[in-house]
């Protein structure tokens, strides 16, 4: 490896020649780079790659073990590829390699012991972010001797097990986590079967809320036992709450929402995707008195009457995700427009809203689309390139666009014209997804010109997602020739989300 890198450096140096015929980099090798420069280069590598670099030579090994490169560490093999073979090895790493530089660490169940936590508390005084993964646990280690825990944590993520009760462990750490500002409790939503099984309340939320009075962001994701009483519990003690996410907690009905907004005066973000919201509970909320700016009610069963009542009373809304709702129809959009409470809207997600007509959508976007930074009109077979060609000149501020549906259409999509319109009108675009079936995409021999225009005009584009097929290969090759290797991706491994627009997006990322 060392000889290879040296040869690359020599060959590269011969490419630059002065008028005198001499290269200013003649005989330069990577070994002659200052340690500071090498350390900066290593910062662009993953920890798995850094470990490989450590085997090249003594100098690289010394640089690879610099604690500055180990500020954010994941020791979950399925995430980072790093596997620590024994507790003794981890204790040595904490003492020698991590130390005061460590800010963030992820630990799998086998490495969560009282000795490891003691060592982190003693040797890593600047540790502020921690993820503890209990999701695969069948039993916990003995924490009866746990006397210390990192006391400066601002962010804590706990991946829960379905069957292991956490109270013995939690009781030991309550006195150390009162400074928490961001809390994630992650359930096993994706692992649950359709069959009804006994549900265990594996963590005591009512005791936890008393130990965490300073929370700004609470994310309860996919936890099968979370219900309205737990939302009520947090709202009773967390007066600084700004963001509450209970996505895929299907026992939440909204019965305590009214109390939540009465207590949590700072609440600006409420994410309730896939919950079991009841219209009568939602309509009881004093929406006109709240300062809510971001709302996700995707895949809920709210009625048309409820949606009209809510959207016409929230005057500060900037972000709305309301896809997959049968009750969201033309009447809702018309009432919302007439009320004028959508003037501040910058993100709109109406994915799979089949009861909306393209005529009403066109009117809405024409009136309010000039401020939209994210527009998601995907999952609807009647929304084709014709509507997009009409509204794209209005979406000048768009950073995120998602269009198309997975099902095969009876009409074709003229993608060259669409790319040209996007490039011409949406120079601020950062993320784009086209979900149409590859067989519906029609493009010509001049497609390269349209793709070139998109690539040159939309310089901020960092992610473009397409269904796998001929057009995907064409676009991918075009961007790779321009050294933009990671921009084009396919829908099997990547999806675009409007969540990038959330003010607390960085705090809400948990895995």
TrEMBL record:
Occurrences of domain F-box (ranges): 27-73
InterPro entries assigned: F-box-like_dom_sf (IPR036047), F-box_dom (IPR001810), LRR_dom_sf (IPR032675)
Signal sequence extent: none
GO-annotated biological processes: positive regulation of protein ubiquitination
Pfam families, A to Z: F-box-like
Alphabetized PANTHER family for the sequence: F-BOX INVOLVED IN POLYQ PATHOGENESIS, ISOFORM A, F-BOX ONLY PROTEIN 33
Protein name in UniProt: F-box domain-containing protein
């Amino acid at each position: 490896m060392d000889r290879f890198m040296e040869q690359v450096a020599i060959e590269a140096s011969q490419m630059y020649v002065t008028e005198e015929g001499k290269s200013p980099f003649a005989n330069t090798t990577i070994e002659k780079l200052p340690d500071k420069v090498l350390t900066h280069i290593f910062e662009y590598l993953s920890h798995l790659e850094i470990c490989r670099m450590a085997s090249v030579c003594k100098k690289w090994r010394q640089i690879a073990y610099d604690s500055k490169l180990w500020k954010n560490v994941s020791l979950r093999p399925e995430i980072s590829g790093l596997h620590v073979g024994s507790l003794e090895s981890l204790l040595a790493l904490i003492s020698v390699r991590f130390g005061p530089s460590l800010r963030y660490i992820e630990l799998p169940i086998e490495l969560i012991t009282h000795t490891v936590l003691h060592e982190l508390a003693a040797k890593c005084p600047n540790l502020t972010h921690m993820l503890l993964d209990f999701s695969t646990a069948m039993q916990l280690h003995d924490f009866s001797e746990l006397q210390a825990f990192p006391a400066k944590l601002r962010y804590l993520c706990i991946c829960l097990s379905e069957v292991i009760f956490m109270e013995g462990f939690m009781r030991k750490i309550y006195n150390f986590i009162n400074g928490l500002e961001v809390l994630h409790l992650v359930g096993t939503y994706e692992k649950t079967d359709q069959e009804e099984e006994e549900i265990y309340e594996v963590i005591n939320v009512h005791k936890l809320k008393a130990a965490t009075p300073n929370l700004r962001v609470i994310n309860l994701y996919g936890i099968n036992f979370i219900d309205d009483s737990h939302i009520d519990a947090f709202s009773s003690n967390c007066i600084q709450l700004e963001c509450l996410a209970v996505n895929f907690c299907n026992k939440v009905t909204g019965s305590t929402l009214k109390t939540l907004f009465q207590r949590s005066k700072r609440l600006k973000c409420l994410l309730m995707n896939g919950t079991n919201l009841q219209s009568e509970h939602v309509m009881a909320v004093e929406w006109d008195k709240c300062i809510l700016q971001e709302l996700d009610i995707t895949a809920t069963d709210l009625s048309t009457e409820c949606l009209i009542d809510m959207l016409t009373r929230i005057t500060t809304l900037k972000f709305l995700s309301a896809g997959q709702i049968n009750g969201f129809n033309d009447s809702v959009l018309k009432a919302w427009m007439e009320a004028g409470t959508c003037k501040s809207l910058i993100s709109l997600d109406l994915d799979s809203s089949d009861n909306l007509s393209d005529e009403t959508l066109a009117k809405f976007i024409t009136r309010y689309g000039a401020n939209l930074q994210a527009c998601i009109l995907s999952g609807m077979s009647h929304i084709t390139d014709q509507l997009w060609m009409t509204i794209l000149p209005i979406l000048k501020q768009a950073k995120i666009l998602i269009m198309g549906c997975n099902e095969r259409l009876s009409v074709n999509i003229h993608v060259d014209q669409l790319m040209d319109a996007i490039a011409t009108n949406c120079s601020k675009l950062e993320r784009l997804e086209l979900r149409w079936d590859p067989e519906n995409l029609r493009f010509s021999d001049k497609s390269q010109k349209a793709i070139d225009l998109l690539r040159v005009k939309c310089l901020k584009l960092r992610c473009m997602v397409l269904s796998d097929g001929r057009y995907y290969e064409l676009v991918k090759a075009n961007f790779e020739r321009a050294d933009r290797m990671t921009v084009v991706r396919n829908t099997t491994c990547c999806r675009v989300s409007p969540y990038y627009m959330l003010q607390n997006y960085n705090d809400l990322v948990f895995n």
